[in-house]
Amino acid sequence: xxxxxxxxxxxxxxxxxxxxxxxxxxxxxxxxxxxxxxxxxxxxxxxxxxxxxxxxxxxxxxxxxxxxxxxxxxxxxxxxxxxxxxxxxxxxxxxxxxxxxxxxxxxxxxxxxxxxxxxxxxxx
Length: 124
Hints:
Blueprint: H1 4-22, E1 26-28, E2 32-37, H2 42-46, H3 55-62, E3 67-71, E4 74-91, E5 95-112, E6 115-123
Antiparallel strand pairs: 1-4, 2-4, 3-4, 4-5, 5-6
């Protein structure tokens, strides 16, 4: 059996949680998302079609790439950016806790003779 002080502490925490929840003291603040760099809109990326989309069309849709490299008739255009998402939970009068997640997003488009051949997306 548990010592009485542990049971009493657990009971107090449960009681406090129930009271705080019923009085509306617990709330979750909306998440905050910030983007830095070149993270194209996913709906626009879906419009890019391998074997059909030309280089100029790609840049019109997504803007200037973060980097470009060329070797012979093959070119790779990369769009790289960072997305940071923060969330905070508040219990009024007691405490605030939060989490922050940072994700690096990269879209790479391989072109041959000015036509998109391969589309890659990576997150890390």
